[in-house]
Amino acid sequence: MLFDNDMMMFLTKDNQNNKTNDLVNEKEGLIRGNMFESEYKPYKNYNPNIINANNDKDSLFLKLYETNFAIIDLNLYLDLHPNDNQMYEIYKKYVNNFEKLKKMYEENFGPLEITCVDSDTYNWIKNPWPWDNDGGNQYV
Amino acid sequence: MFKYSKKLEFPVNIKKKDLEMAKYLVTALGGSAGELAAATRYFIQSFSMPDERGKALLVDIATEELAHVEIISTMFRQLVKDATPEEIKKYNLGDYYTEHSKGVYPVNASGVPFDAKYIQSTGNPVVDLAEDMAAEEKARASYESIIDLTDNEDLLNPLLFLRQREVIHYNRFKELYEDYKDKYNM
Fold first, then answer.
1. How far apart are CA B124 and CA A69, in angstroms?
2. pTM for the full model?
3. Which SS3 state, helix, strand or coil, does residue B107 take?
4. Shortest Cα distance from B57 to chain A (angstroms)?
């Protein structure tokens, strides 16, 4: 017998292809619109521009965008490959990092969700909202 | 249920009004392959998905599409908010302005309002997923046309991002479609 059962387990589709080797970092992932090198299909010769942050607030916000995006893209992959534990470990790292960044952002710059009550007063309603770009460029 | 997060999925900051592009871009909101159709289509189809993977994938992509509705609405608003009535007439947006002024309303590039006929829910997961794959391809092609029509980098970055998301969603739907074809022998 060529393979025993353990060996067959090892040769499941997810492990064979090891999709984690196909990942780009979250900075590249956000501007490309996906985390997987082999699935990136650029349009013509267009190259998306690097997003630059101009101050500490924008820089933290941009990190939040990047980490959030990695979570979104890995989430869709994991929906179809729930047994890919290597990918799940990376997903967990992004989620933990996102929670830290979110807390740091909310403590300094206001709530991202209605359950954030770091401030002494109710400041959920405060501008800017995501579509506002009148007062500078919070949205990078 | 849904939770609102006070941020976009991808940063948008359009510094200059552009009525002509606003007129084309609005189809990505209210057109037949637009984001509102996508969010609604996948959300309602999730209720008849046969297994855990299908339920999760449809709900998660629907949620992301709602974030795309927000991105396109943000872009549209930023493109029109400083326009004068003369500019609105010049770019043939007078019909839109009469009813919606500078509000965000889902229509296609020819001004036809969003229609539930753009979406389907057959209760058959293989059929629904085939529709979803086609919808993602149509949305990708439409983003490519919009990209062809502008050289404004404030628009290009989010448009290229949204286009690539269509590619990824297509790949995910296709994988599930092929699994279901085998699994349910359809």
1. 31
2. 0.94
3. strand
4. 6
Q: Which of A113, A38, A82 is nearest to B55 (CA)?
A: A82
Residue B102 burial class via C-beta count within 10 angstroms: exposed 0-12, middle 13-18, buried 19 and up: middle
Q: Which residues of B touch A68 (CB under 8 A)?
A: 7, 9
Q: What is the ipTM of this complex?
A: 0.97
Token pair recorded at residue B8: 């976009």
**Interatomic CA distance for residues B159 and B50, integer angstroms:** 33
Among A59, A39, A41, A42, smallest CA distance to A51 is for A59
Q: Which among B71, B12, B74 has a CA at the least distance from the CA of B38?
A: B71
* The 3-state secondary structure of A29-51, one letter per residue: HHHHCCCEHHHCCCCCCCCCCCC
Distance CA A103, CA A108 (A): 9
CA distance A65 to B52: 28
Chain A interface test: which of B1, B2, B10, B79 (most A C-beta within 10 Å)? B10
Domain boundaries, chain A: 7-109
Helices B52-80 and A56-80 sit at what angle, rounded to 10 degrees? 150
Distances (CA, A) of B44 to A140, B57, B58, B68: 34, 12, 9, 17
Q: Check if the beta carbon of residue A42 is closer than 8 Å to that of residue A31.
A: no
Phi, psi for B185 (deg, rounded to 5): 50, 50
| pLDDT per position as a tens digit, B79-88 | 999 999 999 9
Placement of tokens 């002509």 in the chain = B20
How many angstroms separate the CA atoms of A47 and A32, rounded?
A: 8
Which pair of structure tokens corresponds to residue A8? 């067959």
Distance CA A136, CA A138 (A): 6
On whether the CB atoms of residues A67 and A98 are closer than 8 A, the answer is yes
The residue in chain A having the minimum alpha-carbon distance to the alpha carbon of residue B77 is A131
Q: Distance between CA B87 and CA B40 in Å, rounded?
A: 33
**pLDDT tens digits, A45-69:** 999 988 988 899 999 999 999 999 9
